[in-house]
Amino acid sequence: MKIKQISIFLENKRGRLYEALKALAEEGINIRALSIADTSEFGILRLIVTDPEKTKEILEKNEFTVKLTNVVAIAVKDKPGGLAEALKYLYDANINIEYIYAFVEKSGEKAVVVLRTENLDKTISILQEKGVTILNWDHVLAL
Amino acid sequence: MQFWHKELETLPRQKLEELQLERLKKTLQKVYQKVPHYRKKIQDSAINPSEIKSINDIKKLPFTTKEDLFVDYPYGLLAIPTERAIRLHTSSGTTGKPKAIFFSKKDINNSAELIARSLVMTGATKKDILQNSMTYGLFTGALVMHYGAEKVGILVIPAGPGNTERQINLMRDFGTTMLHITPSYALYVASVIYDKGIDPKKDLKLKRAYLGAEPYSEETRRKIEEMLGIDIYNCYGLTEMNGPGVGFECIYKEGLHIWEDNFLMEVVNPETGQSVSDGEIGELVLTTLNREAMPLIRYRTRDLTRVIPEPCKCGRVHRRISRILGRSDDMFIVKGVNIFPQQIEQVLMGIKGVAQNYQIVLEAFDEMVVRVEIDRDLFDGKIEKLVRLKEEIVDKIRSNVMVKPKVELLEPGTLPISEGKAKRVIDKRTI
User: Fold this and answer.
1) Measured between alpha carbons, how far is A105 from B410 in angstroms, rounded to an integer?
2) What is the pLDDT of residue B94?
3) Interchain proximity A65–B381, CB inside 8 Å
4) Which of B20, B91, B124, B172 has the fewest Cβ atoms within 10 Å of its own Cβ atom?
5) Which tens digits make up the pLDDT trace of A13-39?
């Protein structure tokens, strides 16, 4: 139930994000979700893409520093409190979230939330127990 | 523990300093009388040679720089008639004129004497066989070593550099026990030995190697030692000071003994010329105390090192210096503090998560920016880890050089790859 996310180290300099995305565009990689965590001099670009292994290869060929990491993607109702409810389960279970980002799926009924926690297996089991929809790879590709 | 000249190597410190003073006075009188350029320099300074009362008085004399060697080029600094000079050596002279150094018969003998001391200090005896793989020619390295080894009674194979196949055959056929070689060539020869399926520990008789003429790290030393199953000794010298044999490691390999009865050493702040305290990094300044043809007074070597003041376990009174840390031209000043890139480099080398390459940029308002590439293999996608890494670098540099840097983490491959003379420091400050 874990899905693969691509993390790319980016120096905070002009055109660097564009170069990364251009390299992927040229090879026909489609981006499903994107987030950037940054400090004043550098950032980490996180992507959910159609083909993570190939993406890694392309980026490394272009001399980017890349790491594949596992994350969990969940679907929450696109209404007030939708995400809070899911997070409460993790809070109660004492699981820390390292980072989180979200996007709304095409139909607009559900929001997809990508989560990285300190313990992914435990996160999955708790969320499943509470009936939260966890997306598998096919779901992600269909988004 | 074996000695070549036990009396001079172990005489009490006070006696050594008396000998230094006596030789210093003689040297100064000589250059004052025989070398017009020195006479003028000394006349312009605050002291007369006859007023020298202690070795510390040398600090009142002016420095000699490499530019002085070009003033009355090529014979101007000779303190003997040219017909008494019997050998010429020059530095590489890649830019402009080479530095020309002349030897009298006594100088040749004396430089060999210092090499003999140095080799015996590392355990060599006349039973050893030295393969001398340095360049024979204008360069001092091979010839000075050659004469010194012969003095000990060592069989010398004057192999010179290159032709690796033949080097290895010589080692095998004649049972070479010692090598005199540059670090980079030693690494190459070692790898070829392995490629040929030769087991150096079984098939060769190598015991030790003397490495010099190029900077190399402690890591490289250990690597070659392991590959060949030998002991490697650091040696220091420069053409202007006879070449090899100025400083040498003893069997403890904890710094290089400078033969202080022949060279008066000072370590100074390259900017101010003032002596630094023992143990502090600075530029090595040497005065020849026992040279006939071409004495040099307070010669600025441009080499950075520090004195190791503690006595050595080997019993020699001659003080040690650390391995050469870099060139004094690299020094820069930020917020009133003298900093050498090597200090920053040492800090970075001790931190996990950064690669070897770095750059120091000096920005307006005396800000020191240290730009360092992250280690691709250690990147795990976590921003907190990078932030902590950055903080660690800031803290360690600050506690080491007393200036708080701004640290920039870069993508691997961003900085230009540098070979040897790297442009590590970029000064963007405008005065």
Assistant:
1) 35
2) 60
3) no
4) B172
5) 888 899 999 999 999 998 888 999 888
Residues in chain A with CB shorter than 8 Å from the CB of B412 are 63, 65
3 state DSSP class of B47: coil
* Interface touch A65/B374, C-beta < 8 Å: yes
All residues of chain A having their beta carbon less than 8 Å from the beta carbon of residue B382 are 44, 98
CA-based nearest residue in chain A for residue B378: A67
Does residue A63 share a domain with residue A110? Answer: no
Q: Which of A5, A11, A98 sits opposite B411 (nearest CB)?
A: A11
- Fold for domain B100-329? Rossmann fold (3.40.50)
Give yes or no for a contact between A1 and A72, defined as CB atoms under 8 angstroms apart. Answer: yes
CA dist B227 and A65 (Å) reads 33
Residue in B365, B360, B371 with CA at minimum distance from that of residue B430: B365
CATH number of the domain at A91, please: 3.30.2130.10
Please tell me the total count of domains within chain A. 2
Are the C-beta atoms of B110 and B124 separated by less than 8 Å? no
DSSP type of residue B366: G
Domain ranges of chain B: 100-329, 332-427
**Could you tell me if residue B413 is left (phi over 0), alpha (psi between -120 and 50 degrees) or otherwise beta?**
left
In CATH terms, is domain B332-427 a member of 3.30.300.30? yes
Give the Å distances, CA to CA, from B262 to A21, B49, B291. 66, 19, 8
Strands A31-38, A42-49: parallel, antiparallel or unpaired by DSSP? antiparallel
Q: Which residue of B has its CA nearest to A13?
A: B410
Is the CB of residue B266 less than 8 Å from the CB of residue B298? yes
Is A42 in CB contact (< 8 Å) with chain B?
A: yes
Q: Do A85 and A32 reside in the same domain of the chain?
A: no
Helix B105-121 crosses helix B140-152 at what angle (to 10 degrees)? 70
E-state strands within B256-327: 256-258, 263-268, 282-288, 299-305, 307-308, 320-321, 326-327
Query: Which ipTM score applies to this complex?
Result: 0.79
- Answer whether 0.90 is exceeded by the pTM: no
Of the residues A70, A90, A115, the one at which a domain ends: A70
Residue ending a domain, among A70, A90, A109, is A70
